[in-house]
């Protein structure tokens, strides 16, 4: 009985430990974000922040409008925002050029890149 209880507790602790390790940020992981407000055409971005929250807060601060929204949260790569009028497209890629090309393709003819960012 004691052996079974010990085994159950050990398995539970292993599972909890593994889950915590998955959520813990890696030493060299950085975050980026892009924020946007369509009506005012306000845009902001953040690069190489230690947490996703820090990146989002900085992007919103730079965006400068109280109704700005985070439209991209990036880890280990790049993101780009393309716009034409009220039409927008946000895409991610391994490089800045890839993210920008994908955003322009998704947005369509006449669109332009208004923001992009990458993490280390």
Structure characterization notes:
The protein has one domain (31-118). It is flat. It has helices at 2-23, 52-63, 96-107; strands at 31-37, 42-49, 69-75, 78-84, 87-93, 112-118. The model is unreliable at 1-23 (pLDDT under 50). With 120 residues, the chain is an alpha+beta fold. The N and C termini lie far apart (52 Å). A hairpin with a 4-residue loop joins β1 (31-37) and β2 (42-49). The strands form 2 sheets. The protein has a 3-stranded antiparallel sheet, with helices on one face. Strands 5-4-6 form a 3-stranded antiparallel sheet. It is 38% helix and 36% strand. It contains 3 helices and 6 strands.
Walk me through the topology.
Layout lengths: L1 H22 L7 E7 L4 E8 L2 H12 L5 E7 L2 E7 L2 E7 L2 H12 L4 E7 L2
Antiparallel strand pairs: 1-2, 1-3, 4-5, 4-6
Offer a concise description of the structure:
The chain is built from three helices and six strands. The protein is of the alpha+beta class.
Give the class from helix and strand content and strand pairing: alpha+beta
How is the largest sheet built, in terms of strand order?
Answer: 2-1-3
* Helicity, as a percent range: 25-40%
- How many helices? 3
Report the average pLDDT across residues.
Answer: 84
Order of secondary-structure elements:
HEEHEEEHE
The description of the largest β-sheet is: 3 strands, antiparallel
Tally of DSSP β-strands: 6
Please tell me what the overall shape is: flat
Tell me the strand percentage band: 35-45%
């Amino acid at each position: 009985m004691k052996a079974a209880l010990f085994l159950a507790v050990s398995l539970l602790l292993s599972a909890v430990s593994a889950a915590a390790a998955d959520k813990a940020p890696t030493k060299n992981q950085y975050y980026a974000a892009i924020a946007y407000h369509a009506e005012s055409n306000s845009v902001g971005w953040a690069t190489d922040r230690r947490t996703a929250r820090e990146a989002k807060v900085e992007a919103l601060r730079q965006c400068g409008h109280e109704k700005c929204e985070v439209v991209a949260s990036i880890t280990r790569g790049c993101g780009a925002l393309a716009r034409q009028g009220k039409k927008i497209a946000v895409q991610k890629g391994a490089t800045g050029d890839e993210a920008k090309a994908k955003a322009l393709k998704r947005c369509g003819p006449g669109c332009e890149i208004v923001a992009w960012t990458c993490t280390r």
